[in-house]
Amino acid sequence: MNKRTRRTLLIVATVLVLLAVAVFLRSKAPPEAARLLPESDGIVYVDFQPLRAFAHKGWRPPQRDPEYQQFIDAVGIDPEQDLNQAAVALHALENPNGPNGPVAYSWVLVGKLTGKRLNAWLETHAVAREEYSGHTIYSVPSEGRTVRVAQIGYDMVAGSNYPTAEKIHSIIDRHRTAALPFSGSTLLEHHYHDVPLLSLAWGVGKIGLPFAEKGSISVLGFQLPLEADANIVASVRWAGTLHLRVEEFAPNEEKARRQAAALATLVTLARGFSQPLGNTTANNTLRELVNDATVEQKHDRVVVTATLPPSFMADLAQ
What we know:
The protein is an alpha+beta fold. It folds into two domains: 30-181, no CATH class; 208-318, Gyrase A, domain 2, CATH 3.30.1360. Helices cover 38% and strands 31% of the residues. Helix 9 packs antiparallel against helix 10 and helix 10 packs across helix 11 (310-316). The longest helix has 26 residues, at 3-28.
């Protein structure tokens, strides 16, 4: 084997190794839609394709608001069928009592969403336009806020109702480097490794912000013993059945112990509250969920786990 042949083989081998490393890093990285999100206080991600497959047997077209149906007809997009992934960033606003409320959102949606009809709708309804890095950002008024929307890829739409354009700019900037195996925002870098493998839906950071009331988090009418800015990792994953896991990062072990005791008491109360409820699908789902729930303290963390009953998917299909 001559020197030229050896050099060629060495170059080929080096390229193959680099490609293998790149593929490995991409496999360990968060989903691309989540990696494109800007810096934020919380992130929620949902992969709708497997969830849609689980719910397919009981799927029935949802009842839609007439205005929402007009939008669907205009853009030619059926979110229930065409949306494959959604990644949403939560931004806590400095003035929670201001006209824009306590939380702003930025998002990246993936699926059969882009096209001329959506572009035409945005052109018609936008009150302003901005050209940024080869993309048109449309500003559309919605419920007292400005929503900035851009088609950033053949199957991706990004948007943000943050008061300024910096978040949508960040998404577009990140999209330019999407081929690189970067980990995404600081929040993902710190907490994505805590998300269980095979999770179909997950959230990290201060994901309780939208449910915050008077400094606490309220869900389904229950005020949880969690602070509104608590750092949480929540996930739903498939392992023969759907498993729910919610993990809170407490400041110390003593606080975690108190939090775990309070949550265990709340689960017990929920079990008693749910027992006399009528025999409906929603009530049966709630009963099965709280009856299966467990609360544990693991050092400075509080972990709540439960198996989501089969009726949960039936509820999603309604």
